[in-house]
Amino acid sequence: MPKNLIIFYTDQQRKDSLGCYGNPVAKTPNIDALARRGAMFQNHYAANPVCMPSRASFLTGQHLQSHRLIDNGFALSKNKATLPGVLAQKGYHTCSIGKIHLSPWGAPAETEYEESRAYWRTGKMDYWNGPYYGFKEVQLASGHGDACYANFGHYGRWVNENFKELAQRASEYGKGKTKQFGRSAIPLEAHHSTWIANQSIEYIKKNKDKPFCLYVSFPDPHHPFVTPEKYYNMFEGADFPAPHFKEGENDRKPFHYKRAMTEKQHPKDGGAHRPLEFTEKDWQVVRTATYGAISLIDHSVGRVLDCLRDQGLEDNTTIAFTSDHGDLMGDHYFLYKGPYPTRSLLNIPFIIADPDCAPRETGAVMSNVDAMPTLLDLLGVPIPPSVQGRSFKDVTEGKPEDKDHVALCSGWSKDSHLFYHHSIYGSRYRITYFPNQDDGELYDLEQDPYEFDNLYHDPKYRGLRDELMLRLLKELGRAEPHDLQAPAWW
To answer: In what helix (H) or strand (E) does residue 173 lie, and over which residues does it extend?
Structure first.
């Protein structure tokens, strides 16, 4: 029988939040064990620093220029070939459990977007379970923290039916009537991470005799930074790793870095800013809840993997673990996410455990555009011509790394055209260009791994800057759409 595929996908999780990536405080034994038996990528980068564009790149193998979901609030075209869609055509049963976010939650009901809260409230989605972007079956969980939206998605409906009081409280959180920070008001048995694991376990048991692709997508550890009490208590009083910042660093970067030190200039695109109102206690609560949420995700991943093993499927299943982007978490003084192409947001975990994988840690530079072709290649499924990424199957098998490969990141912004940017990350350098500011960033990642000292205007680096700008131009040319679907030939 063909190999199965399970993808564990989290929301707004930094690479350095896991024990296997060197975090001394994290409690992630199940994900760490997965990394030990597979390929763990140190230089895996998201195609965009916010949710929807990055998710679209992961599931289509295309850059933003091609799939055109360029920012949160847009919708991915239904004509795009997706990873689950390709597998469905090859006879796989494909299912998504949890968050998807390929169409906007805040869209009005008349758009009839399947993830629109307003459309769910009309009752027209009561009996919907897919198909959706290649997923034959969908069990949707949306919203963050305790705002699980009692009448939104399959998880919300489940809460509404089984936990009436919680559903009302969640509705108040969703409307902003109640502020929340730290411990979740939702008990562990009703939490979305628990529900996602429960549904995934039932799915595996039900579909064990057919090839399947299961997308297990957690809404955490995304803000508002809440987690059930048991997991919050695990980290209360912990000595967390310090954030990375350097006095005066943002004075030498494009103008919006400096403005974010005192202004909230990204209300529509992630909200990244310096939270001047935060006390040390507030920062401790944020980190405590975040680490707790990640530990609960790890426990949920472990439960799903235990089921896979119990069903005798472990040796015939490719497993991936990744996220859509990170959170600044105090790096460069900022919190949340936004149009900042930093490692804090773009350098995310990527782990592949495959029966044919060679256990290894690799420094190969990889983009989440490369994830779809890599997973298809591992499954022995042809890669469609619409895909712009390349397969890293050879790297997972232990073969030498391509030292010249780079990861392209592009970002648009609804807040201002001035934040529009393009970047490439290579094995040593990162260059970024903001076309509408005619300004940029350049970092030597070997000497300056936390991207403090911008070398873009340093005369000593002018030659290198020009060389990297030319490479960026070439990568942007390759990112343009090559799967044009015109309604007429002229």
So the answer is: helix 164-174
The CA radius of gyration of the chain, in Å to the nearest whole number, is: 21
**DSSP state letters, 399-452:** PPP-TT--EEEEE--SS-GGG-EEEEE-SSEEEEEETTTTEEEEEETTT-TT--
Show me where the domains of the chain are located.
4-407
Superfamily of chain region 4-407: Alkaline Phosphatase, subunit A (3.40.720.10)
pLDDT tens digits for 323-361? 999 999 999 999 999 999 999 999 999 999 999 888 999
Please work out, in degrees rounded to the nearest 5, the angle formed at the alpha carbon of residue 449 by the alpha carbons of 446 and 454. Answer: 95
Looking from the CA of 84 toward its CB, the CA atoms found within 13 Å total 26
CB-based contact 109:118 (threshold 8 Å): yes
**pLDDT tens by residue, 438-486:** 999 999 999 999 999 999 999 999 999 999 999 999 999 999 998 787 8
- Does residue 178 register a pLDDT over 60? no
Cβ-proximal residues to 53 (8 Å cutoff; 6+ apart), any chain: 47, 64, 69, 70, 71, 72, 411, 412
- Is pTM, for the whole model, over 0.90? yes
Which 8-state DSSP code applies to residue 135?
B
Which residues face 439 on adjacent strands? 434
Q: Which residues pair with 182 in a beta bridge?
A: 226
The one-letter code for the residue type at 385 is: P
Q: Are strands 39-45 and 350-353 parallel, antiparallel or unpaired?
A: antiparallel
Sequence-ordered strand ranges (E) for 334-406: 350-353, 360-367
Q: Are 213 and 92 in contact (CB under 8 A)?
A: yes
Token pair 């108040």 in the structure block, residue: 172
